[in-house]
Amino acid sequence: MCNCDECEQWMQPYMDRVLTDAERAEAEAHLDDCAYCRKRYHFEVHLRQFVRQSVDEPIPAELLHKLAGLRTPLE
Questions:
Q1: Distance CA 30, CA 34 (A)
Q2: CA distance 59 to 65
Q3: Engineering a disulfide at 6: which of 2, 27, 34, 64 sits with its beta carbon 3.0 to 4.6 angstroms away?
């Protein structure tokens, strides 16, 4: 069975579904047994959902104007 350090390394590949069947089974077994890693997994799932939603929302014109005003010229 994997430990928390291994699970941390496998978290993103696990979510991307690029682990081998054996690695996936080992990661899932660890997630079943470890409340900490399971909590981290759910956080990562929600973070990915938030990022996907944020990318789809247009930036308000007022914010774009403010950001443009913060630019410093390159010299």
A1: 6
A2: 10
A3: 2
Both tokens of residue 16? 């991307």
Dmax (CA) for the chain in angstroms is 56
Task: Tell me which DSSP letter residue 58 carries.
Answer: P
Distance CA 51, CA 70 (A): 24
Q: Is the CB of residue 47 less than 8 Å from the CB of residue 14? A: no
Neighbours of 44 (CB within 10 A): 14
CA–CA separation, 10 and 37 (whole Å): 11
> What confidence tens digit (pLDDT) does each residue in 34-58 have?
999 999 999 999 998 888 877 777 8
CA–CA separation, 9 vs 13, rounded Å? 8
Please state the pTM of the whole predicted model: 0.64
